[in-house]
Specification:
The complex is a heterodimer of chains A (313) and B (645).
Chain A (H helix, E strand, L loop, with lengths): L2 H32 L9 H11 L2 E4 L4 H19 L16 H21 L3 H32 L4 H11 L5 H17 L18 H4 L5 H26 L10 H27 L9 H21 L1
Helix pairs in contact in A: 1-3, 1-9, 1-10, 2-9, 3-4, 3-9, 4-5, 5-7, 5-11, 6-9, 7-9, 7-11, 9-10
Chain B lengths: L1 H21 L6 H28 L3 E9 L2 E7 L1 H24 L8 H21 L3 H19 L6 H32 L11 H18 L7 H8 L2 H26 L4 H24 L3 H28 L3 H36 L10 H4 L1 H14 L6 H14 L7 H33 L6 H5 L6 H18 L1 H7 L9 H22 L4 E4 L17 H11 L1 H4 L2 E8 L7 E9 L3 H22 L6 H22 L1
Antiparallel strand pairs in B: 1-2, 4-5
Helix pairs in contact in B: 1-2, 1-4, 2-3, 2-4, 3-4, 3-9, 3-12, 3-18, 4-5, 4-9, 5-6, 6-7, 6-8, 7-9, 8-9, 8-11, 9-11, 9-12, 10-11, 10-16, 11-12, 11-15, 11-16, 12-14, 12-15, 12-18, 14-16, 14-18, 15-18
Classes of the chains: A mainly alpha (313), B mainly alpha (645).
């Protein structure tokens, strides 16, 4: 492991932790504007997290070590996954860090623990959330893997670092295939981060809750960790989309000047993307749960079609 | 020297067979303990030998018995055999540790001595199948393995369900032997020898391949030949379920691989056939597993799924070989082999811990369990490791082998044929679905069995199992963790260059993040903790009936895949008036159809029954008629011989 990579590990993690809550707030702000409200400040998520850290942690008397361990595993898995998706600086991959399959399964690791924690307290809300989350994640999986396979196909590498490097070298404008893949990636982002039309991150109504239902029993610093890991997951999926489709600014050299420019550019691009997500969410209603498989089937056919086009081209 | 050690290890197993038989008139623990000790000693020795052979690449040969030239019981251990011997010995040793305690709690008095003896014979027969140097001894020990496993399934023969399961298993396993025999006879007719030597490409060898594939598929539980697994596994004692699921299914995989590698020169369509069979098995297996509420039947279906994944690897191997892509073929083959080993480890771990749970709660129904994490913490922890491994989560071993399969799928870019690429991508999509559904399945299993409140009084009274019943699974669990963390290093050590991510590094990073988060929160966040009841919208006390049940958990998946389950809902109502307003009476019901049983097994069974009925008319029981048959037969033979001359 060389110095650049070690520096990358520290800086990328710090950067993700620092900016992740911002994008959650921006989406909320855009949604509030779309509804004609002024909405909370864009720094509200930071304040909420700080407040949660000061609160006591409440556990159910029926719960076990699963409940107590889950927030830590969740944030650890998501942070390691975030290392697989460089935000602004792409180093040489070391020891398979950046492997796209491993990235997917690290997210699955976090989800596995979260679903079990949902069942741990014996509350039917938690059970409902876990059951729905595992079902949705199972039926979106074929689409995700096909999109990832298409990425591997296009970039001829299994490693996200190599993909980003190739994409940065080619620069904008992206190829038509990549733009089509970007649409699929956007659908995956919406599903994976539990947003409308799949889930509604704003409410705790039992009709809509999937992700929120699962973490209903979490409190205090544990809840803060869960919220933070959701924010980090959002950021890493956004970074994946941005750095593949609009990679300008992304750098492979370790120089302070270029990295500073890249950081500013990334925050701008991500803010725009967060705005798009907010508008997308505001433009439609949440779908009925059992209508989702047809949405996913559509996404699956769409992404398979891209592959077929790419294969025969 | 090594062959001497190999014979000694076989001798130890034989000692393990005769020790409890010698004490058969005495129902004393010491004989059975001795027998299990023999299993462990034999397995450890065998494991050491096979590890040595695996690392050095030496071969061992030994001819035990040769009645005539060309027909012998002889054995060869090459690297492939050594790998499977290692698998057998690791699992057998851990299962024997568990069985030494578990079998003592079984009912059946003296029959437990027979159980120990027969288990040793079963393991010995599997060892000899894998070590067989020619098709003749392969067949002999294959049949011995089938017979032993039938006896073991029938251990609890006084129960009707066990007898049904045993007979079902017997019919299926004999069918398997029949197809294997057909394949071997066809090969013999082709080459004139029982040696495992290459045959040329010919229609006969293709038929022989199909026969062998069916034979091995029945044994491996490939859909549609899978139905014996969910019957036989719940019926048999836990160590036997673990051995059958963990090891015996892999013997079928070994058989297929041995014939594919050494005997046949596979065609492309063979690979497609194996891949499609494997994919269908994997997806359907896990979908059926999600529906099960009998914990052992659920694990049996999950074994079907995993065998499907192994078959996918083998199918890809054949496909890539026939496209002349040796590197990719090697990765696929390694993924199949590695997954076979990993599945053997985590599935026997899961079966053993599930057996402990059944032992403690006296029920196999997961809806009557719950809350066991507080009463059986160690068992819960071990089952948890198994669940993480089988759900293919990093950095455990299940992920390590599935990632190899993913890599070989992703690399199918190199295959030239475009239509074929599309087929591979579809299989890839289904494989991803399988993998995600298995995570859902084991969240359901762990959640229903161990978490929340106990859903039955027995479950509330359960206690942790004795030490030996924890030690065996604990060894398997640590093997699962180590094989996952050091997977890349193991491949490097054995001399295979695979593009595998370094899971040890990932494990270290995960640990570092965990520790850092914990430290950061410890110093910055509030440390106040309060323990109180679960929030229940104002209800005064929380009841187990309020929890999400296992059925409830898999309900969304049931509905999404209802076409696969072929669930029929009936709703018949009659009304007093014409406008259907005043309800008179009605019946509603949900009918679960066992698709394969009703549309495949029963028609075949009925047809063969009808054929038997027709034939039985000739059996009048009257001596004169039989004399007439004999007379006609003699005349026919004379005429036939005369015509031949």
């Amino acid at each position: 492991m060389n110095l650049a990579f070690g520096l990358y590990l520290v800086l990328n993690t710090a950067a993700v932790l620092l900016i992740a809550p911002l994008f959650v707030s921006i989406i909320k702000k855009v949604k509030a504007w779309a509804q004609g409200r002024s909405g909370p400040s864009v720094f509200q998520t930071y304040l909420t997290l700080a407040k949660l850290l000061k609160k006591e942690t409440v556990y159910s008397s029926h719960s076990s070590w699963v409940m107590r361990l889950t927030p830590y595993v969740s944030i650890a898995a998501v942070l390691v996954a975030a290392l697989f998706v460089p935000l602004v600086f792409v180093p040489e991959p070391v020891g398979g860090i950046g492997n796209i399959i491993l990235l997917l399964y690290l997210l699955a690791l976090a989800r596995f623990f979260m679903a079990l924690a949902g069942l741990d307290a014996g509350s039917s809300f938690g059970g409902m959330g876990s059951s729905r989350e595992m079902s949705i994640s199972a039926i979106i999986e074929p689409t995700t893997i096909i999109v990832f396979a298409a990425l591997v196909f296009v970039f001829k590498s299994l490693n996200v670092f190599d993909m980003f490097a190739a994409s940065a070298a080619a620069g904008a404008p992206a190829t038509p295939t990549l733009i089509l893949l970007g649409i699929s990636l956007f659908i995956i982002l919406v599903v994976e981060t539990s947003r409308i039309p799949v889930d509604n991150p704003e409410t705790h109504l039992e009709l809509t809750m999937i992700h929120e239902g699962m973490i209903l029993e979490q409190s205090g610093k544990n809840l803060a960790l869960m919220e933070l890991s959701a924010a980090v997951k959002l950021t890493l999926l956004m970074a994946l989309l941005i750095n593949l489709i609009v990679p300008f600014g992304l750098t492979t050299t370790l120089a302070i000047g270029t990295i500073a420019v890249a950081t500013v550019l990334f925050v701008l691009k991500a803010t725009v993307l967060a705005g798009i997500i907010g508008l997308f969410e505001s433009s439609m209603a949440k779908m009925r749960f059992f209508r989702l498989p047809s949405l996913f089937a559509m996404a699956f056919f769409f992404s398979t079609l891209i592959i077929i086009i790419e294969v025969f081209a | 020297m090594i062959d001497g050690l190999f014979i000694i290890s076989l001798g130890i197993f034989v000692l393990g067979i005769f020790l409890p038989l010698a004490g058969a008139w005495q129902d004393r623990r010491i004989f059975r303990a001795g027998s299990h000790l023999c299993t462990i000693a034999g397995s450890v020795l065998l494991g050491a030998i096979s590890l040595f052979l695996l690392l050095t690449g030496n071969d061992v040969t030994w001819t035990a018995y040769q009645p005539v030239a060309g027909l012998s019981l002889s054995f060869t251990i090459d690297r492939l055999s050594a790998f499977f011997l290692l698998l057998i010995s690791v699992v057998s040793a851990c299962v024997a540790l568990y069985a030494a305690e578990y079998n003592e709690h079984l009912e059946g008095g003296l029959r437990r001595n027979l159980l120990s003896a027969c288990t040793n014979l079963f393991i010995l027969s599997m060892v000899l199948v894998v070590a067989s140097a020619n098709t003749f001894s392969f067949l002999v020990f294959w049949e011995l393995m089938a017979g032993c496993s039938f006896l073991l399934v029938m251990y609890d023969y006084s129960r009707a369900a066990t007898r049904k399961a045993g007979l079902f298993y017997f019919v299926m396993t004999q069918l398997s032997t029949l197809f294997v025999l057909l394949g071997i006879v066809l090969l013999f007719s082709q080459t004139g020898s029982f040696a495992m030597a290459p045959t040329g490409v010919s229609p006969v060898s293709a038929i022989a391949f199909v026969a062998l594939l069916i034979g091995f598929s029945i044994k491996a539980g490939i859909i549609p030949f899978h139905k014996w697994l969910p019957y036989a596994h719940p019926a048999s004692p836990t160590p036997i379920s673990a051995l059958m699921s963990g090891v015996m299914l892999k013997i079928a995989v070994y058989g297929l691989l041995r014939f594919l590698l050494d005997v046949f020169s596979p065609d492309l369509w063979w690979g497609i056939l194996i891949l499609v069979m494997g994919t269908a098995t994997a997806v359907l297996g896990i979908i059926y597993a999600l529906k099960e509420y009998d914990i052992k039947a659920m694990l049996a279906y999950s074994s079907i799924e995993n065998t499907g994944i192994i078959f996918m690897g083998i199918g890809l191997y054949v496909i890539f070989s026939s496209y002349h892509l040796p590197d990719l073929a090697l990765i696929s083959l390694l993924s199949a082999l590695f997954h076979a080993l990993n599945h053997a480890l985590f599935k026997s771990l899961l079966f053993l811990t599930a057996g402990s749970v059944v032992h403690a709660t006296h029920t196999r129904d997961i809806e009557r369990m719950g809350g066991l994490i507080h009463r059986m913490p160690t068992t819960a922890g071990l089952f948890f490791v198994g669940a993480l491994a089988i759900a293919a989560l990093p950095p455990l071993n299940g992920f390590a082998s599935e990632v190899l399969l993913f890599i070989s799928f992703f690399s199918s870019i190199a295959v030239a044929d475009p239509l074929f690429k599309v087929l591979l991508f579809l299989c890839l999509g289904l494989f991803a679905l399988t993998s995600a559904l298995s995570a859902a399945c084991f969240v359901k299993a762990f959640g229903s069995v161990f978490l929340a409140l106990p859903r039955s009084p027995e479950s509330g009274r359960s206690e942790e199992v004795p030490f030996l019943m924890l030690l065996g699974p604990a060894l398997l669990a640590s093997a699962c963790v180590l094989l996952g963390l050091f997977a890349a290093q193991i491949f490097h050590l054995t001399g295979f260059a695979v593009p595998m991510p370094d899971l040890f590094l990932v494990g270290l990073l995960l640990l570092a993040m965990l520790v850092l988060t914990f430290a950061a929160l410890f110093f910055t966040a509030s440390r106040d903790v309060r323990v109180t009841g679960t929030w229940g919208c104002g209800t005064l006390s929380q009841q187990p009936a309020m929890e999400y049940s296992g059925h409830g958990f898999s309900e969304p998946i049931d509905i999404i895949f209802s076409t696969v389950y072929r669930t029929k809902m009936k709703n018949e109502r009659t009304f007093f008036d014409q406008k259907n307003c005043i309800f008179a009476e009605g019946r509603a019901g949900i009918q679960l159809i066992k698709v394969f049983e009703e549309y495949l097994y029963l028609p075949v069974a009925r047809a063969s029954y009808a054929a038997a009925e027709t034939v039985s008319r000739f059996q009048s029981g009257c001596l004169d008629t039989y004399l007439l048959y004999v007379f006609c037969a003699v005349i026919a033979v004379i005429v036939f011989l005369g015509w031949l001359a």
